[in-house]
Amino acid sequence: MTLDKILVSISSVIGIAFTYWFFLLKNEKETIVSNSIDIVVLGGYSPQNIIIPKGKVTKINFIRKDPTTCLEEVILDDFHSKKYLPLNKTVTVELKPQETGEFAYHCGMNMYHGKIIVK
Amino acid sequence: MNESKKTFPIKGMHCASCVRIIERSLKNVDGILDCNVNLATEKATVTYDATKVTNDLIASAVSNVGYKALIDEEIKSQDEESHEKQKELNDLKQKTIFSLILGGIILWGSFPGLINTAPGFLKNPFLQFLLATPIQFWAGFEFYRATINSIKHRTANMDTLVTIGTTLAYLYSMAVTFSPQIFKNIGIDPMPFFDTSTIIIGLILLGRFFEARAKLQTSDAIRKLVGLQAKTARVIRNGKEADIPIQEVLVGDLIRVRPGEKIPVDGTITEGESSIDESMVTGESIPVEKIKGDIVIGATMNKSGSFIYKATKIGKDTMLAQIIKLVENAQGSKAPIQRLADIISSYFVPIVIMLAIATFAIWYNFGPSPSLLFAMLNMVTTLIIACPCAMGLATPTAIMVGTGKGAENGILIKDAENLEIAGKINTIIFDKTGTLTNGKPIVTDIVATSNLTDAEILRLAASLEKNSEHPLAESIVKEAENKNIALAKVGNFQAIAGHGIKGTVDEKTLYFGNRKLMETKKINILNAQNSINKLENEGKTVMMLAIGDTLSALIAVSDTIKESTKEGVKNLQKMGIEVVMITGDNKRTAIAIAGQIGIKRVLAEVLPEGKEAELRKIQGEGKKVAMVGDGINDAPALAAADIGIAMGTGTDVAIEAADITLVNKNLNSVASAINLSKKTMRTIRVNLFWAFGYNIILIPVAMGVLYPFFHLLLSPVLASAAMAMSSVSVVTNSLLLKRYKL
Fold first, then answer.
1. H-helix or E-strand containing B235?
2. Residue B7 pairs with which residues in a beta bridge?
3. Is the separation of the CB atoms in B398 and B419 below 8 Å?
4. In the CATH hierarchy, which fold is given to the domain comprising B232-321?
5. Which residues contact residue B599 at a Cβ distance below 8 angstroms, ignoring those fewer than 6 apart?
6. What's the rounded Cα separation, in Å, for the pair B363 and B367?
7. Most A CBs within 10 Å: which of B29, B49, B51, as the mutation test of the A interface?
8. Cis bond upstream, residue B119 (ω within 30)
9. Which single residue of A65, A75, B350, B710 has CA 20 to 30 Å from A85?
10. Average pLDDT over residues A30-50
């Protein structure tokens, strides 16, 4: 095996490992919300994972700053809610969850994801 | 407690009393601590406990008294959404045309076969570089922006794949253009691939344009429903008529509707009569005749007559507003079948990037010469062919079109999960009264068993029944009224639950009720037994009138079977679904009615509270059971069924308890709802099969698995065309549901 092939092989293994670590092993920070939270929609959701209380009303304010069409809708299907997010405007979703658990939310094309953890 | 304060505009205020009305209504909400309404600014400021009070509660407290609270900026306007989407579409169109024209010119000057026909200057790599650069960074700007934003979040999407793929091709071509010698030295023909990078961008933008246009159509149903709303109402206040905006209509307002006008809000006719086209809300094509006392639905169309009606429901309480809310909720829900797609889509893009890197390494190490070129092109093809969009769009687009199609035909499906279950239903239980029948019983026979005349029998029975609340009582009283029979005074009235009634008329003790009542009072009915059997065998309910301890007459009452019942039941049976009838009627009557309809299995003499237990027994046989009722007295059974179908009511109770609400009273809608569910689920399955199949088959092909066997490789340009068409085809397949005839 020539040196260039060895280098390409090593770089590829490093590249694959990096991709795996970068995208799939990221540390998922969870933000505790008591009443309301602003989620900025820009290349994903910030904060992405939130913890909200069971049985109480929590307001989630989505503010889309990203013009990517993929992010123009947010779907909280466990809560039967689909909202169109106009650019640079606040759209509030009110939740009063009656069950504990983890509920995913995502963009209209199911490519950007976030989690609502009810405790 | 979590004290919060909120100020919001209120629409519809015009005097100081409005201030007091709104303040009083808001203060009555549990959790609102203080509120202040300002007439001059038309705003309300509310201090409240945020753990108890939601925006919806505030909005409904305000709308209950006839005004509208504009809370938050989120009140979305369909127009605004459409406008923004149209702008996006125009922008996409411009960039697509630009990329495809310039990309086409580059392709002409570089593609084998075409290159010989191109003028010399088009073959110049520097010119190609100049043409490709604006496509890469202007038309493809969205890909870069989305990629950079998502990388910051350590997430990746389709844009990431397109960005990496096209940037690789662009940078390689740039290197070849500016330093061809380096490539010549390692034995590679210094040929740029600007055609690849530009055409990929052009085709993917084209795909996105088609997809966006098609997606816009998936939400047509909601837009249509919103568009049904009337803008103004002709209100009569203090004897004066005036056209006012619909938002200012208050509950209790008298509204005049002239021929050809749209009915603004829900209400009850107080004067006049007309024929009304309700097809836009109920899906029922035949206009309905309405007279004084009848309910009219907002957004329906008045045909010939003119009438005045009293507004009973306004704003978000109207039937149309409830339908829109229900459809929106359904479209935001998830079908269980989508779960697999959810899991895969969260890993998909990183996995494709890893596969693309592996493709590069494998082709570089083991591929034919020039291996760098093969490795680069196959890596780009792998990145470009992968289409996570199709998987993301497969289920929601079909649900949007399916539930929208239902709503247009008066079939409201509560959520996507119900679509999935409804398709598996194999038994349907129909509540008889008001579902299979019109729910308006009429007196059919009066049989004297003594020397009383028919008029006298009717006078006695109706006098007694006037005091009763039993559903059949109304039919007897009405019959007496129709015959202008004056009713007598009744003394010692007593209702005997489940049996009948007792009272004194003309100083005689009367008993009026069923067989059980006669048995309890030891009244001999043997002489009339033949008549009773005959009437019951005809599907009529027989009531017996006794004076003292002697049976004096029989009155038979019958509910008419709906016109659509026989056909509706037959359609279900043709679909292989067992149809069961449940009723409180006695067995003989029930069997007779079922026989007329064509139903074989009958559950008779079931009290309202026993319906749920009977339903559970059938579920215990391993059947998937749907229950169809009016939703008022059978709400527990509707909730217990695998699918609860409420029919022809549109009441709050029914919509809450039912999984599917049929706004019209046509029994064929039951089969239509099930067929629509099946059809939508089939579309979802085809979409998912296509989306998964596409990626499972074409990603390995793009990686080059066919090369060792057939020397077959996929070109990156073809890959981009396939990728663009795959998501378009999924959305188009969902849109085909629109053509389905219910």
1. strand B232-237
2. B45
3. no
4. 2.70.150
5. B430, B569, B579, B580, B581
6. 4
7. B51
8. no
9. B350
10. 92
With respect to CATH, is domain B3-75 assigned 3.40.190.150? Answer: no
Smallest CA–CA distance from A42 into chain B, residue: B149
Of A12, A43, A59, the CB nearest to B146: A43
Above 50 in pLDDT, residue B75? no
Sheet holding A30-32, edge to edge: A30-32, A49-52, A113-118, A101-107, A73-76, A81-84
Tens-digit pLDDT profile for residues A10-37: 999 999 999 999 999 988 789 999 889 9
The CATH number assigned to the domain holding A71 equals 2.60.40.420
| Distant-in-sequence, close-in-space partners of A34: CB < 8 Å, separation ≥ 6 | A53, A58, B2
Find out whether B136 and B130 touch, Cβ atoms under 8 Å: no
User: With contacts defined as CB-CB under 8 Å, which chain A residues touch B80?
Assistant: 86
DSSP 8-state class, residue A22: I
Superfamily of segment(s) B410-437+561-676: HAD superfamily/HAD-like (3.40.50.1000)
Give me the number of domains chain A comprises. Answer: 1
Q: Examine the pLDDT at B61 and tell me if it is beyond 90.
A: no
CA distance B50 to B736: 45
Is the minimum CB–CB distance between A49 and chain B shorter than 8 Å? no
* Structure tokens given for B596: 């007329």
**Distance (Å, rounded) from C-alpha B66 to C-alpha A83?**
27
Convert the pLDDT of each residue in B505-527 to its tens digit: 888 888 998 888 888 888 888 88
Cβ contact, residue pair B341, A110, below 8 Å:
yes
The rounded distance, in Å, linking the Cα atoms of A14 and A40 is 33
pLDDT at B73: 41
Write down the CATH superfamily of domain B438-560.
Calcium-transporting ATPase, cytoplasmic domain N (3.40.1110.10)
> Helix (H, G, I), strand (E, B), or coil: what is residue B200?
helix
Task: Identify which has the larger pLDDT, B587 or B705.
Answer: B705
| The two structure tokens encoding residue B653 | 């109770």
Chain A residues closer than 8 Å to B389 by CB: 109, 111
- In this complex, do A43 and B149 lie within 8 Å of one another by their Cβ atoms? yes
A7 by Cβ neighbours in 10 Å (0-12 / 13-18 / 19+) ranks as exposed
> What interhelical angle do B125-134 and B78-108 show, nearest 10?
180
Query: What residues contact B101, with CB distance under 8 A and at least 6 apart?
Result: none
d(CA A56, CA A34): 9
One-letter identity of residue B422 = A
Q: How far is C-alpha B15 from the chain's CA centre?
A: 39
Find how far residue B656's CA is from the centre of its chain.
Answer: 14
User: How many whole angstroms separate alpha carbon B702 and alpha carbon B718?
Assistant: 10
**Distance between CA atoms of B21 and B15, rounded to whole angstroms?**
10
Check CB contact under 8 Å for A23 and B156. yes
Closest by CA position to B94, among listed B208, B219, B214:
B208
Question: Which of the residue ranges B216-230, B242-256, B694-708 would you say has the lowest mean pLDDT?
Answer: B216-230
Distance from CA of A111 to the nearest CA of B (A): 6
Is A57 near chain B, with CB under 8 Å?
yes
Backbone angles phi, psi at B143, to 5 degrees: -65, -45
Chain mean pLDDT for chain A? 91
pTM of the model: 0.79
Which of B51, B153, B364 is opposite residue A43, by nearest beta carbon? B153
pLDDT greater than 90 at residue B383: yes
Q: Is B354 part of the contact surface with chain A (CB cutoff 8 Å)?
A: yes
Report yes or no: B672 and B742 within 8 Å, Cβ to Cβ. Answer: yes
Which of the residues B195, B253, B415, B431 is marked catalytic? B431
Summarize pLDDT for B106-164 with one digit per residue, the tens: 999 988 888 889 898 999 999 999 999 999 999 999 999 989 988 988 888 888 999 99
Test mutation, A45, A69, A105, chain B, max B CBs within 10 A: A69
